[in-house]
TrEMBL record:
Keywords: Oxidoreductase. Pfam families: Aldo_ket_red (PF00248). This is Aldo/keto reductase. GO terms for molecular function: oxidoreductase activity. One of its GO terms (cellular component) is cytosol. Gene3D superfamilies: NADP-dependent oxidoreductase domain. Residues 16-320 form the NADP-dependent oxidoreductase domain.
Length: 342
């Protein structure tokens, strides 16, 4: 397994990490993702560690804390062999006015609760799950600084931030000497390339590594969706399609057609090719793979140990290209001054 530096930090992470959104299955949304219990989670962790996948990502809102609890149980006796990543910001308790956001009150409490559920003394990578516009950035970052100094967090990051929100956070960290975010857990895939418009150049400029979530385009690049064929009965898209990013059908089929052609050339599966494409993109430190069972996990692990050719990458780039929003389409016309990140 290849390891890469997480942003500009000295910390290395495996290029594939395991996302535990399928652990627990509490509530309609997460039940559609999966209902992995402790026993099955241990098996999946075993397979990951055998393959060199040592980073495991979760969040407090995944099945209302159950994902963190199951992961903690599954990692018993091998905490020192793994990297644990978790997130918080979104509402955790509908009846508590302070159980949401990135305030000092909420972050201190949620980190302590996460440590208890994960059965650990520290979190390797802690990410703000979303931007909190109602809490001063200085309050949030000073709290994270306290938690780092207390040894409860080692590295910090963000998720689902816009470019200006991340840059403002980095500027405040520079001004006061707080820990700089080194990770940006971001949605990025062959059918969701918005990350490239602003966040990727920012990541290169500021030393923030991408931790990619939903690399198969919200379950659309599993290899089971084909032009002219009905959505498979087993697809979670029946329940979750409206909750995720919209993708025009013809655009999806164009990308899948290109993936199918390259799959025939390489002998690899559609998901393996989609994941391998991501691993060749600038700023990407690690790609989160999820799995509801061992077969899915083993297939995703086949995305490493080989590389698409430059010509194959170019074909996928062209098939998945879209006209970006302003001012990015305008900047593309002046590549001499605004080149694409390499």
């Amino acid at each position: 397994m290849e390891y890469r530096h997480l942003g500009a930090s000295g910390f290395k992470v495996p290029v594939l990490s395991f996302g535990t959104g399928t652990f627990g299955g509490k509530g309609d949304f997460f039940q559609a993702w999966g209902e992995t219990d402790v026993s099955e989670a241990r098996k999946l962790v075993d397979i990951c560690l055998e393959a060199g996948v040592t980073m495991f990502d979760t969040a407090d809102v995944y099945s209302h804390g159950t994902s963190e609890s199951i992961l903690g149980e599954a990692l018993k006796g091998r905490r020192d062999k793994v990297i644990v990543s978790t997130k918080a910001t979104f509402r955790f308790d509908p009846d508590d006015p302070n159980a949401v956001g990135s305030s000092r009150f909420h972050l201190v409490r949620t980190v302590n609760q996460a440590l208890e559920r994960l059965q650990t003394d520290y979190i390797d990578v802690f990410q703000l799950h979303g931007f909190d516009a109602k809490t001063p950035v200085e309050e949030t970052l000073s709290t994270l600084d306290d938690l780092v100094r207390a040894g409860k967090i080692r590295y910090t990051g963000v998720s689902n931030f816009s470019g200006w929100q991340l840059q403002k956070s980095l500027d405040v960290a520079n001004r006061y000497g707080y820990p700089r975010h080194v990770a940006n857990q971001t949605y990025y895939s062959l059918i969701g390339r918005d990350y490239e418009w602003e966040l990727m150049p920012l990541g290169l400029d500021q030393g923030v590594g991408a931790v990619v979530w939903s690399p198969l385009g919200w379950g659309r690049l599993t290899g089971k969706i084909r032009r002219g064929a009905p959505l498979p009965e087993t697809s979670r898209l029946h329940k979750t399609a409206d909750m995720g990013p919209p993708v025009p059908e013809e655009y999806l089929y164009r990308v899948v057609d290109a993936l199918d052609a390259i799959a025939e050339e390489t002998g690899k599966t559609v998901p393996q090719i989609a994941l391998n494409w991501l691993l060749q993109r600038p700023t990407v430190a690690t790609v989160l793979i999820g799995a509801r069972n061992e077969a899915q996990l083993r297939q995703n692990l086949g995305a490493v140990g080989w590389n698409l050719t430059p010509e194959q990458v170019k074909r996928l780039d062209e098939a998945s290209a879209v006209r970006p929003a302003y001012p990015y389409w305008h900047q593309q016309g002046f590549a001499e001054r605004n080149p694409f990140p390499v």
